[in-house]
C-alpha cells in the first residue's frame, strides 16, 4: 500500500506514488504541465527493476525523443543506485520499432540488413515513379505524394486500406496505385522509410500470431510518456502489445497535444479508459515547476480552448514575478532586449544553462544568433540547424559568394547544379580536372569548357547560360543593395521556382528562412560586408563546455524546463502562425493555444513574452498586431511594458519620437564607393579578371582568365584525347586547341585534356 512506500519514493506525492506502485493493470496518468508525470514514470521504471518485478529487458518504455530516453536511463540508474544493464526497449517509437524490425524483416519481404531511407532518397524515388507514370510532376509534386504517404502510414493504412477519398487525394485517383508501387519499389531495394518502421511492425503483429504472442509475453510492463501525441499507428501497435497482460501505464496532458500536423490524435488519450476498462486514472494537480504567476497565466490562457478536459493546477512554490510582456519597436530591438536581459541574469549569477528562448518558427532564431554573436553570448540551437547552416541559406550564400568572389570553388560546387540543371558528376569532374591542371578557379574552368567540345552540347549550353547569369549578377551587384541582389538571384536562378513547386510545409519554412536572410542583409551596405559578417558568425562554432543559452522551437521544448524563458515574436501571423490563421479553423487555433501553454509552462521562475510593433519583409515595413494570446493572459498576472510611449497601440505610438520606419525604403541609397569585400581584392590580386564590363566582353574568350598555355604542345603536334582519340593540333589560342582528330574531325578541346602522343 502507498503508505508503506520505501524511502526512496518518499519524495513523490501521494498520487504519484500510487501511479508508481500500481504496477498491475492499466493506469492512466492524466495531468497538467510540471506535475511530475515524467518523474513518476521514471520512478515507476526504477521500482519495477528494483523490486524485480521484471528484468530491464521485459519492460517497454516509450519516450518522445531520444534525449528523453537517455535522461530516463540515467535517472533510473541514479534512483536504484546502480547502472542499469540493458534496457533495450527504452526509446522512441521509431528506435524501438527499428530494433524489432531487424529481427522480423523477412515477414514483410525485407532482409534484416534493410536500409532506412531519408527524405531526400524518398523524394528522388517518388520523382522517378511519378515520371514513369507519366504524371505531370509540377501538378503532382513528389513532396505532395510523400506527405500523403506519410499521413497514410501514420494512420496505419496499407495501400489496400485506403478509402476512395484518400485515393482521390493524389492525381485524380492514382493515390493507391502510387502508394502500392512505392512500397514495392522499396521492397526491391531492401529498404524502408521512416513511417514503415511502425507500419511494418504493426503489420507483423497483426498477421503473425506467434510473433505477437512472443512480444506480449516478453513485455510484462508497457509505459508511454507524452501519450497525447501518439498517432494512430503507434496507438494500434501499443494496444496489440499490451492487450494480453494489460499492464500498461500511459501519461499525458490533453492540453499539450501539439503534433496533430504529424498525425497525432489527442483522442487516443481520451479513449484509453474504453480500450482498457477498469483503468486506474491518476490525476496530479500539484505543480512543482513554476511560480503561481506562471501557472495562473498558463491556466488562464488554456481555459480559452473549448476542446479540453479541464483540470486544476496548484503550487506551493513561493510567489514570483508576474509574467512580463515587452513591446518593442522591431526585431533587432527584440534581440537586443533579450540579450540585455540575459546579461543581467548572468550578472545576478543565473546559470545560462537555465535560460531558453523558444520560438514559433525556425527563421526567428537568426536575429538572436546575430545579436548573441555580437555580444559574445554562448548559445546552442536544439532540434535544428543554426540559421546560417541551413541548406537553403547555404545555397543562397553560395550564389552570393560566387558573385563576390568568383574563385570560391566550394561555393560554386554547391550551386552549379542547384536547382537541378542537368549537370551531373561527370561535368563537375571535367571542370575540376581542367581547373586543377590550369590552376584556375572552378567557375573559370567551367566557362572555358562551355566553349569547347569537352562536354556534350546540352551541358555546354547550360554552363554558358549559368556563367552568363553570374556575369550579369556581378554587374548588378554594383547598383543593387545586397538584399535586392539576393532577390534577383533567387528568382533568376530558378531557386524560388524550385521552392514554390514543392508544396510541403517544410518548403514553406525554407522560403521563410530566405525572407529572413534578406532581412538580415538589409543592414549591410555591400555584399562584401555582409559576407564577412556571415563568416564571422559561422566561425563562432567552437564547441566548448561553456555554459550556453538554449534556442529552440516551442515544439522541441516539450517536456523540458528552464528557470528563465523568453518567448519572442508574439504577434498575429507569427504566433499564432499565419498558416493556422489562413486555415481559419477552430482546431488549428486551439492547437496554437496549446503550444502557447506548453511554451509558458516550460518556465520555472520567469517568463518574458515579447512582441514587436514592426516587422520588415523584403525591405517593406509592416505594422504587426500583438498576438491574441497576449490579450488572453489573465491581467492580474501580467506586467506589460513597452519601449514606446503612451498606452496607445504600438503602431500609433509617437511617430515623431521614433525613427521613421519607412525612411530606409524611401531614401535613395548612398553612392557606394568602389571598395568591395575581401573576395574581390583577392580575386584581383591573383590576376583573375573580374571587372564586370570587361568580363562580359570576354565571355567567350578563354584568354581573359590568364590560363597558361602548355609549352609542350604546338601547332602540328600529334596528341591523344581520352574521348576523341588521336589527332593533330591545327590551331592554338591560349590553352584552347583546335585539333583535327583522326576519327571525329575538327574539335575544340582544352589542353589539359590531351597528352602529347609522340
Ligand atoms: P510536462 O507536462 O511538462 O512533461 P511533467 O508532468 O512531466 O511535465 P516533470 O518534468 O516530471 O513534470 O516534473 C516537473 C518538475 O517537478 C521537475 O523538476 C521534477 O523534478 C519536479 N518534481 C516532480 N515531482 C516532484 C515531487 N513529488 N516533489 C518535488 N518535485 C517534483
Ligand atoms: Mg513530462
UniProtKB/TrEMBL annotation:
EC number: 5.6.2.4
Pfam family, any one: UvrD-helicase
Residues binding ATP, per UniProt: 31-38
Molecular functions per Gene Ontology: 3'-5' DNA helicase activity; ATP binding; ATP hydrolysis activity; DNA binding
A GO CC annotation given for this chain: cytosol
Keywords, sorted A to Z: ATP-binding, DNA-binding, Helicase, Hydrolase, Isomerase, Nucleotide-binding
Metal-binding in keyword set: no
UniProt-listed Gene3D superfamilies: 1.10.10.160, P-loop containing nucleotide triphosphate hydrolases, PCRA, domain 4
InterPro entries reported for this sequence: DExx_box_DNA_helicase_dom_sf (IPR013986), DNA_helicase_UvrD-like_C (IPR014017), DNA_helicase_UvrD/REP (IPR000212), P-loop_NTPase (IPR027417), UvrD-like_ATP-bd (IPR014016)
Catalytic activity: ATP + H2O = ADP + phosphate + H(+); Couples ATP hydrolysis with the unwinding of duplex DNA by translocating in the 3'-5' direction
PROSITE patterns: UVRD_HELICASE_ATP_BIND, UVRD_HELICASE_CTER
GO biological process annotation, one example: response to radiation
UniProt superkingdom: Bacteria
Domain UvrD-like helicase C-terminal: 292-559
Chain ranges of the UvrD-like helicase ATP-binding domain: 10-291
Protein family (similarity comment): Belongs to the helicase family. UvrD subfamily.
Protein role: Has both ATPase and helicase activities. Unwinds DNA duplexes with 3' to 5' polarity with respect to the bound strand and initiates unwinding most effectively when a single-stranded region is present. Involved in the post-incision events of nucleotide excision repair and methyl-directed mismatch repair.
The protein, known as: DNA 3'-5' helicase
Organism for this UniProt entry: Aurantiacibacter xanthus
Lineage: Bacteria, Pseudomonadati, Pseudomonadota, Alphaproteobacteria, Sphingomonadales
Amino acid at each position: 500500500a502507498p503508505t508503506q512506500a520505501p524511502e526512496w519514493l518518499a519524495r513523490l506525492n501521494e498520487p504519484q506514488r500510487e501511479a508508481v506502485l500500481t504496477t498491475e493493470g492499466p493506469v492512466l496518468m492524466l495531468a497538467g504541465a510540471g506535475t511530475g508525470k515524467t518523474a513518476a514514470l521514471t520512478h515507476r521504471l526504477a521500482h519495477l527493476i528494483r523490486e524485480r518485478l521484471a528484468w530491464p529487458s521485459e519492460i517497454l518504455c516509450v519516450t518522445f525523443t531520444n534525449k528523453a530516453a537517455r535522461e530516463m536511463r540515467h535517472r533510473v540508474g541514479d534512483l536504484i543506485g546502480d547502472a542499469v544493464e540493458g534496457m533495450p526497449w527504452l526509446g522512441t517509437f521509431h528506435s524501438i520499432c527499428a530494433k524489432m524490425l531487424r529481427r522480423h524483416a523477412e515477414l514483410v519481404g525485407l532482409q534484416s540488413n534493410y536500409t532506412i531511407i531519408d527524405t531526400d532518397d524518398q523524394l528522388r524515388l517518388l520523382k522517378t515513379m511519378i515520371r514513369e507514370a507519366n504524371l505531370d510532376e509540377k501538378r503532382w509534386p513528389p513532396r505532395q505524394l510523400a506527405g500523403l504517404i506519410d499521413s497514410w502510414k501514420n494512420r496505419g493504412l496499407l495501400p489496400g486500406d485506403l478509402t476512395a477519398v484518400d485515393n482521390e487525394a493524389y492525381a485524380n485517383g492514382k493515390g493507391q496505385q502510387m502508394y502500392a508501387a512505392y512500397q514495392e519499389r522499396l521492397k526491391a531495394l531492401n529498404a524502408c522509410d521512416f513511417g514503415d518502421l511502425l507500419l511494418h511492425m504493426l503489420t507483423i503483429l497483426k498477421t503473425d500470431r506467434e510473433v505477437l504472442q512472443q512480444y506480449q509475453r516478453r513485455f510484462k510492463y508497457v509505459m508511454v510518456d507524452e501519450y497525447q501525441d501518439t498517432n494512430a499507428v503507434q496507438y494500434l501497435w501499443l494496444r496489440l502489445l499490451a492487450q494480453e497482460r494489460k499492464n500498461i501505464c500511459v501519461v499525458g496532458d490533453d492540453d499539450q497535444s501539439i503534433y496533430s500536423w504529424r498525425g497525432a490524435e489527442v483522442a487516443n488519450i481520451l479513449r484509453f479508459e474504453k480500450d482498457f476498462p477498469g483503468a486506474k486514472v491518476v490525476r496530479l494537480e500539484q505543480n512543482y515547476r513554476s511560480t503561481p504567476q506562471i501557472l495562473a497565466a498558463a491556466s488562464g490562457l488554456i481555459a480559452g480552448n473549448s476542446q479540453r478536459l479541464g483540470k486544476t493546477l496548484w503550487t506551493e512554490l513561493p510567489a514570483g514575478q508576474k509574467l512580463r510582456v515587452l513591446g518593442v519597436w522591431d526585431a533587432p530591438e527584440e534581440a537586443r532586449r533579450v540579450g540585455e536581459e540575459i546579461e543581467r541574469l548572468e550578472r545576478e549569477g543565473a546559470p545560462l544553462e537555465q535560460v531558453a528562448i523558444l520560438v514559433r518558427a525556425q527563421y526567428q532564431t537568426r536575429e538572436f544568433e546575430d545579436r548573441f554573436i555580437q555580444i559574445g553570448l554562448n548559445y546552442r540551437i536544439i532540434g535544428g540547424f543554426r540559421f546560417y547552416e541551413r541548406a537553403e541559406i547555404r545555397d543562397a550564400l553560395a550564389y552570393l559568394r560566387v558573385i563576390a568572389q568568383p574563385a570560391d570553388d566550394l561555393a560554386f560546387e554547391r550551386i552549379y547544379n542547384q536547382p537541378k540543371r542537368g549537370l551531373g558528376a561527370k561535368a563537375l569532374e571535367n571542370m575540376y580536372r581542367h581547373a586543377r591542371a590550369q590552376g584556375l578557379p572552378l567557375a573559370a574552368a567551367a566557362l572555358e569548357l562551355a566553349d569547347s567540345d569537352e562536354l556534350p552540347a546540352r551541358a555546354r549550353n547550360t554552363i554558358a547560360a549559368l556563367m552568363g547569369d553570374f556575369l550579369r549578377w556581378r554587374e548588378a551587384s554594383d547598383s543593387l543593395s545586397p538584399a535586392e541582389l539576393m532577390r534577383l538571384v533567387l528568382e533568376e536562378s530558378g531557386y524560388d521556382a524550385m521552392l514554390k513547386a514543392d508544396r510541403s510545409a517544410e518548403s514553406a519554412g525554407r522560403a521563410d528562412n530566405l525572407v529572413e536572410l534578406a532581412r538580415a542583409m538589409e543592414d549591410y551596405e555591400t555584399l562584401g560586408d555582409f559576407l564577412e559578417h556571415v563568416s564571422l558568425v559561422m566561425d563562432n562554432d567552437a564547441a566548448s563546455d561553456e555554459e550556453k543559452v538554449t534556442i529552440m522551437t516551442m515544439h522541441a521544448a516539450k517536456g523540458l524546463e528552464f528557470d528563465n524563458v523568453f518567448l519572442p515574436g508574439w504577434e498575429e501571423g507569427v504566433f499564432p502562425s499565419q498558416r493556422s490563421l489562413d486555415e481559419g479553423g477552430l482546431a488549428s487555433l486551439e492547437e496554437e493555444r496549446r503550444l502557447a501553454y506548453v511554451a509558458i509552462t516550460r518556465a520555472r521562475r520567469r517568463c518574458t513574452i515579447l512582441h514587436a510593433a514592426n516587422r520588415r519583409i523584403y525591405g517593406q515595413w509592416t505594422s504587426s498586431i500583438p498576438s491574441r494570446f497576449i490579450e488572453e493572459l489573465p491581467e492580474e498576472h501580467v506586467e506589460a511594458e513597452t519601449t514606446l510611449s503612451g498606452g496607445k497601440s504600438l503602431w500609433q505610438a509617437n511617430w515623431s519620437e521614433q525613427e521613421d520606419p519607412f525612411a530606409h525604403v524611401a531614401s535613395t541609397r548612398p553612392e557606394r564607393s568602389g571598395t568591395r569585400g575581401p573576395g574581390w581584392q583577392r580575386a584581383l590580386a591573383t590576376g583573375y579578371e573580374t571587372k564586370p564590363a570587361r568580363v562580359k566582353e570576354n565571355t567567350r574568350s578563354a584568354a581573359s582568365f590568364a590560363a597558361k598555355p602548355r609549352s609542350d604542345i604546338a601547332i602540328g603536334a600529334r596528341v591523344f584525347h581520352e574521348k576523341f582519340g588521336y589527332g593533330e593540333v591545327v590551331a592554338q589560342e591560349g590553352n584552347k586547341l583546335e585539333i583535327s582528330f583522326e576519327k571525329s574531325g575538327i574539335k575544340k578541346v582544352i589542353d589539359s585534356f590531351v597528352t602529347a602522343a609522340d
